[in-house]
TrEMBL record, chain B:
Membrane topology: Peripheral membrane protein
Presence of keyword 4Fe-4S: yes
Taxonomic lineage of the native organism: Bacteria, Pseudomonadati, Nitrospirota, Thermodesulfovibrionia, Thermodesulfovibrionales
The protein's name: NADH-quinone oxidoreductase subunit I
Domain 4Fe-4S ferredoxin-type: 50-82, 92-121
Organism listed in the record: Dissulfurispira thermophila
Catalytic activity of the protein: a quinone + NADH + 5 H(+)(in) = a quinol + NAD(+) + 4 H(+)(out)
Length: 343, 181
């Protein structure tokens, strides 16, 4: 009984609030753990791809490295430049963390587990991910440093060119599922024997992947924080916990974007019906396993691409966004609509 | 552009090739050597901490000619000599400021008696400057510590052969060697 109340809510609003708070605590706690170990695995994976070892000193094979990093960042001096715009400087790092963490609210991790099952989930995610770019732009402005300013400028330009492509790439998914509710998108994919929109929407998936890298400022599109050109980009002047907030926001953003890719293209917590019909034992595995497995693959993809592809040149990046991705996404929408209408 | 080139560009063939390479590399052994645990002997001829050669009779081999100090590019060798009662040159002080040394080993090459060497020892970092200002006693004890045994003798013989012993052109050098006989 308590389980159904936990997942679907009850008539007692007090109980509902308590359950929602518990859910929020669980989701934030688990996500933060994932963020910590995402940094560790990033260093390990890239290390091994470059034929070196990565962190090895703190704990066996360096597994306690994220804890040590956290402690270090926590006790570091918090420096605010004398010429910085202080209120904006202080608010800026909170915005991306706030935006990315609140995106977690609408993500269905497995059957029935959503903090807020709203009908415009996808739209809400877009809104929140564009909001997090404001943190970057504000940091670039408030630091009063040329490098941060260039980073902020680049970030805003990047957001303009990639948000569009990203939104358009998911329109195909919306057409096929007929909903913006993330749980319903997953359920809609169960209606097909292949169980994933990845197969009919492979063009959209490609566009989404590229836009996903740009959206989270990861290589090859990490222009706002291009180390070799802008020192560290928009967060040059940040130190200690404020820097850690940006770092956390970046990794939470990666997890959110991977989750969206999984939900919209990989069937979320479900497996293709074809597969579950063939091996009924797979139905007994909890959905969170598949969900996390698919998310981990996408996060690995982030690391993999980072270890392989060099940074794009700035004008090439804009050209790719406007001249390739947006036309591709638009063509995909047209074709999907025609096919959907005909069938 | 041929169709092949266009296909290459559209399907990101080069990027996938690169991705395959990095993935393959992920499963190869890392080349990292974890230094304090995994040590490696320096290669023969490695130029580490300085030492003054001690003759079998226990005295320093150095005669105080000052050639090493003269050739030293960073001028970190200080030599003070005096005349003894039986009119022989005595080396009072022989000091090397290790922190300024650039490890070119010109001093070793310049020395006509092979009296100064660079040992393979390289782990001598310290917190004070005094500890790295080597006087004659310290340099001689470096010889005792790091250049003992057969291996060290071979090392000395092979790499820091004093020019005094053979001033000829190496046998394998194709040069005019005068008329035979």
């Amino acid at each position: 009984m308590i389980e159904t109340v936990f997942f679907t809510g009850s008539s007692n609003w007090m109980l509902n609030i308590v359950f929602i708070i518990i859910k929020i605590a669980v989701v934030i706690g688990v996500t933060m753990l994932h963020v910590m170990y995402a940094t560790y695995f990033e260093r390990k994976v890239i290390g091994h791809m470059q034929v070196r070892l990565g962190p090895m000193r703190v704990g066996p094979h360096g597994v306690l490295q994220p804890l040590a990093d956290m402690l270090k960042l926590f006790f570091k001096e918090d420096i605010i430049p004398a010429n910085a715009d202080k209120p904006v400087f202080k608010i800026a790092p909170i915005i991306p963390v706030f935006a990315t963490l609140s995106s977690l609210a609408v993500i269905p991790f497995f059957e029935g587990f959503v903090i807020a099952n709203i009908n415009i989930g996808l739209l809400y995610i877009f809104a929140m991910s564009s909001l997090s770019a404001y943190g970057v732009v504000m940091a670039g402005w408030a630091s009063n440093s040329k490098y941060s300013f260039l980073g902020g400028l680049r970030s805003s330009a990047q957001v303009i060119s990639y948000e569009v492509a990203m939104g358009l790439s998911l329109v195909g998914v919306m057409i096929l599922s007929g909903s913006l509710n993330l749980s319903e998108i997953v359920n809609a994919q169960q209606g097909y024997w292949y169980g994933m929109f990845l197969i009919p929407q492979f063009v959209a998936y490609f566009v989404f992947l590229v836009a996903m890298f740009a959206e989270t400022n990861r290589t090859p599109f990490d222009l706002p924080e291009a180390e070799s050109e802008l020192v560290a980009g928009y967060f040059v002047e940040y130190s200690g916990m404020r820097f850690a907030l940006y770092y956390a926001a970046e990794y939470i953003g990666m997890i959110i974007m991977s989750s969206i890719a999984v939900i919209c293209f990989w069937g979320g917590w479900t497996l293709p019906p074809m597969l579950t019909d063939a091996i009924p034992a797979l139905k007994a595995v909890p959905g969170i396993v598949w969900f996390l497995g698919k998310v981990y693959f996408h996060i690995f993809l982030y690391y993999w691409v980072r270890a392989t592809v060099p940074r794009y040149r700035y004008d090439k990046l804009m050209a790719l966004g406007w001249k390739v991705l947006i036309p591709l996404a638009l063509a995909n929408i047209v074709v999907t609509s025609i096919v959907k209408y005909v069938i | 552009m041929t169709i092949k080139d266009i296909a290459k560009k559209v399907f990101l063939i080069e990027i996938f090739k690169g991705m395959a390479l990095t993935l393959r590399m992920m499963f190869t052994h890392a080349v990292t050597r974890q230094y304090p645990e995994e040590r490696r002997e320096p290669f023969p001829g490695f130029r580490g901490l300085h030492a003054l050669v001690r003759n079998p009779d226990g005295k320093a081999r150095c005669v105080g000619c000052g050639l090493c100090a003269a050739i030293c590019p960073s001028q970190c060798i200080n030599i003070y000599t005096s005349e003894s009662k039986d009119h022989k040159k005595v080396v009072d002080r022989y000091e090397i400021e290790v922190l300024r040394c650039v490890y070119c080993a010109f001093c070793v090459e310049a020395c006509p008696f092979g009296a100064v060497v660079l040992t393979p020892h390289f782990e001598y970092s310290d917190y004070s400057r005094d500890a790295l200002y080597m006087d004659k006693e310290k340099l001689l004890s470096n010889w005792d510590k790091f250049m003992t045994g057969k291996r060290a003798e071979e090392y000395f013989e092979r790499f820091w052969r004093p020019k005094l012993e053979d001033f000829t052109t190496p046998e394998n050098q194709p040069v005019f060697r005068g008329k035979e006989g």
